[in-house]
Design a protein that fits this description.
- The chain has about 140 residues and is an alpha/beta fold.
- It has one domain.
- Helix content is about 25%, strand content about 20%.
- The chain has a five-stranded parallel β-sheet with strand order 1-2-3-4-5, with no helix packed on it.
- It starts with a helix and ends with a strand.
- The model has no long low-confidence stretch (mean pLDDT about 75).
Length: about 140
């Protein structure tokens, strides 16, 4: 479905889905369009979450409430200056069952917006994922 129509469907997902186990949203057209999940979306029983071409969902309750998550794939996400590696690692630490993690960015992270503060960070949260079996990272800049 075209991205504008898909965004309407995604925005309608602004509630709780207590038995949803698998969410897979990949737009088939307009790869430069970035979708946004509503902050109120909840699916506490989901095991797999695959999102392509979304504005960074890192830090949303979407991740912090996903204690059953086994597979997480955030592909071609649009980074933002609000992206905090420390917050991301804290969110990952709440996913003890995670076995598969894939993250890829669709464009370079602006050096002055994120790279500088990241290099100056003294204490980044260390995260242990005891069940992690597969990790993939794709980025187009440092």
């Amino acid at each position: 479905m075209p991205v504008p129509s898909l965004q309407k469907v995604v925005m309608a997902m602004d509630d709780q889905f207590p038995i949803l186990e698998f969410l897979y949203i990949i737009p088939s057209t307009m790869p430069n369009a970035h979708l946004v999940l509503p902050a109120t979306f909840r699916a506490p029983q989901r095991s797999y979450l695959v999102l392509n071409h979304f504005t960074s969902p890192i830090g949303l309750p979407l991740l912090t409430t996903a204690v059953s998550l086994v597979g997480l794939s955030l592909r071609w996400i649009q980074p933002s200056t609000g992206l905090s590696p420390d917050h991301f690692f804290q969110s990952l630490s709440l996913l003890p069952r995670l076995q598969e993690l894939q993250i890829s960015f669709s464009s370079p992270v602006p050096s002055r917006g994120i790279q500088g503060p990241m290099l100056r960070m003294q204490n980044i949260t260390q995260t242990t994922l005891p069940n992690l079996r597969s990790f993939v990272f794709v980025g187009v800049s440092a």
